[in-house]
Amino acid sequence: MIYLSTDTHRGLKHLFKIALLSATFFTFGATAVATTASADDTSGVPAVYNGKNPQRDMVTNVSSDGQTQPQQYFTSWFSLAGQDSNYTGPTTGSNPNSILNLDDYTKDPSSLYEHLLIKNDSNKPMKFSIDLCLPQFWRGKPTVNTNWPVYGSDKIATPTAGSTTQGLDVKYSSFTKYYIPQENVTAADLQDLGKISVGGTLQSQEHYQLDVPLKLIDPENIELDDLLNGAKFNSVTINNQSNGYYVDHVRFARGVNAYKQLGINGTNKYVVTYRTNDKPAKYYHAADIQNLMPVIKPDDTVVNDFGGYDPKNNDFPYIYTGGGNFFLNYQTIKDINGNNLVQTFQNNGYAAPYNDKLGTIFPYYAWSYMNKINDSGSTSEGDWGNMDGISNYGMQIVKVIDVNGINDQDQLFLNPGAKWNPMDNVKIWNPQQTYQELLPNAKPTVTSTRPLNADGTLNTNQTGSFDITYNYPFTYTNGNKVTFKKTIHVIVGNNSGGGTTTTPSDTTGSSSSSTTTGSSSSTSSSSSSTPTTTTKPSTSVGPNIAVKGEAVYATKKIGLYKSTNFTKSKRIAWYPKQKRVNRPMFVVTGYKRAANGALRYKVRDVNHGRKTAGKKGYITASRKYVVPVYYASVPKSKKITVISRKGINTYKSANLTGKAKHYKKGVRLTVKKLVKHNLTTRYQLSNGHFVTANKKLVIAGNY
């Protein structure tokens, strides 16, 4: 997904945030491989990946007299868990790339090798002098590069069975000692080994193979993303007779299966978001058009684990961290109704992101992968992916028409007689951007299915509903002319749908995200459905009511029901009163009133590990029974106590990344301030670190 947030939901395996802008495409995100990913996420992912066309050609040797001998070959390669990397290139300058899966190394560290093979397939003797350069040979400084493998044994490597050794001279070179005869090599030399040199003569049909054991010094702390500073290493063979260098570029990475990791299951839709230009950027779910997003198809994605956009060499479905990209060809995708997706954006007040260097909208979305592990352990975050048919893979768009006061369904609820001017409650943001940049002098046109008052305000003297449509014509710098549209639904005197009723004094306010059904046709028609999530409190129906996407828990015995009619026949489950750390928890996904006017929360059960997990229905919205899971203020004492049986972690960032320290149950912590993050909160401690403000994990005061 291109967006977004760095707070990990247990079911949300990947989150993305804006990374960089290049001359040809925009890198919209960098993925984070969560430690909570299931074993299925790596199903079928190779221990060694060599691209779609593995290199298996050996290098043609050149004899000492300068004559090519085509049937005489050599090469080198790596292996892990019994799988081979690409061979070193058959010609100088032809450098294949391979990836070693760090997870497979962790499972079996003894399975990592670098190999050298020299063959004489001719009918006459072959003289040769070959250097096998190990990864540390190229580090360029005396100290070991811990991102690269080192020699993995305290003994010299022995040739494989069937190898010819008679008449061959084998020497070892460390970083400080060169060409040590193998019989004189010490354990200290092996610890700093850089290359192994083999020379001599192979008779017809003889071969020599050496399997060199390797190991990682600190596999848990490899900088998988830092390719510029040496996370990529090489297998290199040097032909000393022709001074030819033959290379295979290799890096460690973590691999995942795109189907599982991106939520591609045949039913999930792309998630759609937009962002602000704040520092740091804030991201919001464009839930008003979420229902129009198409189902994810594998053919829409191009994965290039070794570099830039190359649809002819698509590495899908294998995604590896560090050094690669994957691309979404969104301009060729249709919305859920079969209409052009870019046109659907425009018909609902959004634009596709614009590339000022290309002078047009981006041809495709691009993401990079990174290895920042992010696992807050939370089960109730208000993230948008992996919920109700929405994947964690999507598109970032630009909000252009921003109407104040509307709710999740693009509805505006007004009391009879309320004064509301549509021109005073709209902002226009620059379509030629990747984020929200205000166009202060831009004015849309407004049409209404109910005549406006003479002063331009809405006619709210009669109850009922009608539509307001905003139109904003815009010409891009390349001359392309488009019209952005936005239709909102005004309801006067009826708040049963769960929107915020505006009184006559409510004529201004901050802009909010809108989350309605939207229009997917090339005209101004619209369709209707119920969206699932939002990120702003415009969804509330009154004070002390949780917003959509917020987590609540029950403080007393409550029931979950199929409808707002709370009867025995409609009951799905009972939730008895529990101790604080075990209180049943729900995510609010909507609102509805019962026949007697009582407000109900439409919810999803997020009590993972229990039989009711995932069930959906209605619960009471009464604060006597359910309250928000997260604290909304700092305790007067500025003290909190850890109550989770397993303790809690503190982190260096408010998005709960960069683990700082673990605290056991009963530890008291001093709070500096409360920090909001999406629909959750964190406490910043006196030492600057951050901790969850989840009431099931911490309690205000000293206990």
TrEMBL record:
Domain DUF5776: residue ranges: 630-698
Region annotation (Disordered) ranges: 493-543
Biased composition (Low complexity): 501-540
Coiled-coil stretches noted in the UniProt entry, renumbered to this chain: none
InterPro entries, alphabetized: DUF5776, Ig-like_fold
One Pfam family cited in the UniProt record for this chain: DUF5776
Sorted UniProt keywords: Signal
Keyword flag Lipoprotein: no
Superkingdom per UniProt: Bacteria
Signal peptide: 1-32
Protein name (Swiss-Prot/TrEMBL): DUF5776 domain-containing protein
Organism: Lentilactobacillus diolivorans DSM 14421
